[in-house]
Amino acid sequence: MRDIKFRAWTKKYKRWLHEGHSCNILGEVILLGRWCSEVSIKDLNDVEVMQYTGLKDKNGEDVYEGDILIADEYPEDGVDYGVVEWYKNGFAVSPWFTVKEFTEEAENYEVIGNIYENPELVKEMK
Q1: Pairwise CA distance, residues 80 & 36, whole Å
Q2: How do the domains of the chain map onto residue ranges?
Q3: Domain 6-125: CATH architecture, name and number where available
Q4: pLDDT one-digit tens code per residue, 53-96
Q5: In which element (H, E) is residue 38 found?
Q6: Of 17, 82, 5, which Cα lies nearest the Cα of 44?
Q7: For residue range 18-48, what is the model confidence (pLDDT) as tens digits?
Q8: Which residue, 109, 58, 59, is CA-closest to 84?
Q9: Which pTM does this prediction carry?
């Protein structure tokens, strides 16, 4: 059994909604606490919610959807970075691994950023 956790990024304000102030229920973002006064209903379309994979990286950090990982040993294709994405029935790392492979190998990778705060790393991948 894994923890069910989410994090949320507001594109308008370019910051994280702090833990305990947001949750995702059936695809709808619910905002709680002080954010109710800062984020209006019309802003909800600008909130990106990412799920915790249930895995930790080599440093013990939680790995979330949207995280950018770097490997100790780079895959044969020479791509240094990978992005955690939902794929079919679980989380995979694009362009490297399928769901099963990522689940078995997560502890060999390190979270070095995410697609919102570090978009330059995603551009380098392409």
Answers
A1: 40
A2: 6-125
A3: Roll (2.30)
A4: 988 999 999 999 999 988 766 555 555 678 999 888 888 888 77
A5: helix 35-38
A6: 17
A7: 655 555 445 555 555 444 445 555 566 777 8
A8: 109
A9: 0.75
Collapsing DSSP to helix, strand or coil, 103 comes out as helix
- CA 43 → CA 31, 34, 38, 76, 120, distances in Å? 11, 15, 10, 42, 25
Cβ atoms of 73 and 24 closer than 8 Å: no
- DSSP letter at 21 equals S
Chain-centroid distance of CA 115 in Å reads 8
- Amino acid identity at 93: V
- Please state, in angstroms and rounded to a whole number, the distance separating the CA atoms of residues 41 and 12: 13
Query: DSSP assignment, residue 60?
Result: S
Residue type, 114: N
Q: How far is CA 99 from CA 10, 27, 54, 104, 122, in A?
A: 27, 22, 13, 9, 20
